[in-house]
Amino acid sequence: MFKALLVDKTDGGVAATLRDLDDADLPEGDVTVVVDHSTVNYKDGLAVTGKGSIVRKYPMVPGIDFAGTVETSSHPDYKPGDAVVLNGWGVGESHWGGYAGKARVRGDWLVPLPQAFTPAQAMAIGTAGYTAMLAVLALEAHGVTPDAGDVIVTGASGGVGSVAVAILAKLGYRVLASTGRAAEADYLKGLGAAEIIDRKELSEPGRPLGKTRWAGGVDAVGSHTLANVLAATRHLGAVASCGLAQGMDLPASVAPFILRGVTLVGIDSVLAPKAKRLEAWARLADDLDVDKLETMTATVGLDEVPRVAKDVLAGKVRGRVVVDLGR
């Protein structure tokens, strides 16, 4: 038997409850993993609270990330005792995820846990940090180098933003961190941000094309914020879009694209191919300071996830939250 956080429909919506499950309850898959740690991402907040149409079928064990040890496997790439990580692939949405003592999944969804990280550190990174690394790789691929000029990170005090700030600063970029939480200025500067921008500067409707302020950016916010980031991006700059904290809409114009040659790059972390995942995790091992990772991380037990999920959606959580399944 093992503990799991199970979300199911009720007359009033959905409810998340701790349950005792056994191996027979697990869904189909060719690898069974003993889960050490998971995380609480924005998607997890939506799944646990029922505030978004994230869960595709009920009952569901949420948790879009997990790190653990292979218990049984019929997949050729994995054997019992292997340390593994999973991010995305619809886990925690349409397939039971990481908020349980065990998970059974397709081996093709897993990647080996990098030797540079413990399972807890891997989940401090989680989908948020892995997404941030994919965004940095996209900026590099589009020629946004440290000598090209400043880069902006929106939603900087959140999970994606915090890791993006830390990575970009370590790589030598001058990072502008946009946040609505003035109290987090010292935290963001500790991660490497050179300048703090009040999110109000970007969150209201703006001009189709503005004064150039940065060579590129990582946007986790969407809506007017992304539109304004694009409008202030320099000639041949690039912006990686990976979130929708403000909204799914993009009230922008074609001006930045046809007058400055700006590139908008979409970051899909859920279905990224394995080669890209391995590249991202390898770069995280090289380019993310684990000491800074520790400063942005809090750890909770499985029973605390429903509370944290609400705080994540309310924008009250700084950085990353790790779920310790043994706590």
Characterize the overall form. Answer: globular
**What string gives the helices and strands in order?**
EEEHEEEEHEHEHEHEHEHEHHEHE
Name of the CATH superfamily of the largest domain: Medium-chain alcohol dehydrogenases, catalytic domain
Distance between the termini: 16 Å
> How much of the polypeptide forms β-strand, as a percent range?
25-35%
SSE arrangement:
Layout: E1 2-10, E2 13-21, E3 31-39, H1 42-49, E4 65-73, E5 83-87, E6 102-105, E7 110-112, H2 119-141, E8 151-153, H3 159-170, E9 175-179, H4 185-191, E10 195-198, H5 200-203, E11 214-219, H6 223-231, E12 233-241, H7 255-259, E13 263-266, H8 274-287, H9 290-295, E14 297-301, H10 305-313, E15 320-324
Parallel strand pairs: 8-9, 8-11, 9-10, 11-12, 12-13, 14-15
Antiparallel strand pairs: 1-2, 3-4, 3-6, 3-15, 4-5, 5-7
Helix pairs in contact: 1-10, 2-3, 2-8
